[in-house]
Amino acid sequence: MQSLTPSSSGINLKSLIRTKIQSNRVNPNRPVIRCVYRFDAANAAVNTGTANTNSVGHVGGSRADWQSSCAILASKVVSQQQNAEKSGGAGNITAVNGHKAAMDLDLVPIDNQPKPLTITDLSPAPMHGAQLRVPYQGVPGAYSEAAAGKAYPKCEAIPCDQFEVAFQAVELWIADRAVLPVENSLGGSIHRNYDLLLRHRLHIVGEVQLPVHHCLLALPGVRKEYLNRVISHPQALAQCELTLTKLGLNVTREAVDDTAGAAEYIASNNLRDTAAIASARAADLYGLQILAEGIQDDSSNVTRFVMLAREPIIPRTDRPFKTSIVFAHDKGTSVLFKVLSAFAFRNISLTKIESRPHRNRPIRLVDDANVGTAKHFEYMFYVDFEASMADVRAQNALAEVQEFTSFLRVLGSYPMDMTPWCPSRED
Ligand SMILES: O=C(O)C(=O)Cc1ccccc1
């Protein structure tokens, strides 16, 4: 057995070689991508192309299988890139986004000439077939799965046991987009996930707002009076705190990785004293009954998710776009005021501004070459504004912001989710 180290893989698997976050889940065979540590060279040979997580026992089957898939896919990508480099100029292009192109331009009949690239060719597209692979943290029935379905209706949503794994799946070309909850109308920003955006080099390419309709789930026949404990994702527990008390539930609250995972845990352990806060779909999937529905404290409870890809999308001005940035400054007076003025003077509306302290916590920033450096900042500021990076106002505003700040990164410029939402039973 050969162990996979960052240097031997040639890809950054450092963040995978870390203490695995304890998961409460109990079924080791479910098709969830899990964090992986070791690479088995012998397995690698037989597991080529097992990135499809629909098949239980491949990606979801064991850590080694998934790691093998990562390594193989990554090495294929590298060798494809090397071949492309060796073969050189445009006349040798063999395929562009899956369309065969001319090998020898002089000999090709006129109507077989390669078509000019269009804007669609330049947008990040799946490298395999038509179905986008979209990893999310959690198990089927999680709200993130619903968000993936809203963003990409025909996608293959892939459950992962950690966000890190979802990010790595996209970085290693196993998947096309990752979905990440970033803020909630009740609970505010999910800071940990903003940290992930900084530690990785994926780009925000879209957003969806999802009305979240929580249910209290328990095994069939269990009544509220039997309950000692309610388990769920920390955001879900916080969003239902008042209602749980109003329901007269004198129970302990326990946080787990995701809402649907809580439902699955109760079902697979036959826990008759425990309820989960999760979606109605999770009740269906794991055979639980709904004891109460719509238990969020605010009926207009909405979570915002962002979609991440390896490449940014080309910003446009023919539809409403939003841009997300993060910046920090080392010293100086009124920096925040100056930054905000850069937007205000150009009539650019901000939809979010948030700071978070970073005094004693160096943050590992990754540059375009995926080289990580630790840097100390007192505060990081996250700003979302309503303009596309194709808009000259946004370009000028950012040029000005750059003058006042010591660190500035555009997390993405992407179409705004304009779909009207209203509280509904649909999760
Ligand atoms: O745990 C889930 O189902 C998630 O997708 C995260 C989450 C939790 C609570 C509200 C919205 C999203």
TrEMBL record:
It holds the Pfam family PDT. This is Arogenate dehydratase. GO terms for biological process: L-phenylalanine biosynthetic process. Residues 324-415 form the ACT domain. It catalyses: L-arogenate + H(+) = L-phenylalanine + CO2 + H2O. GO terms for cellular component: chloroplast stroma. Transmembrane segments: none annotated. Converts the prephenate produced from the shikimate-chorismate pathway into phenylalanine. Its main location: plastid. Its EC number is 4.2.1.91. GO terms for molecular function: arogenate dehydratase activity. Pathway: Amino-acid biosynthesis; L-phenylalanine biosynthesis; L-phenylalanine from L-arogenate: step 1/1. InterPro entries: ACT-like_dom_sf, ACT_dom, Preph_deHydtase, Preph_deHydtase_CS. It is found in: Plastid, Chloroplast stroma. It is an enzyme of class 4 (lyase). Residues 133-310 form the Prephenate dehydratase domain. It comes from Solanum stoloniferum. It comes from the Eukaryota. SUPFAM superfamilies: ACT-like, Periplasmic binding protein-like II. Keywords: Amino-acid biosynthesis, Aromatic amino acid biosynthesis, Chloroplast, Lyase, Phenylalanine biosynthesis, Plastid, Transit peptide.
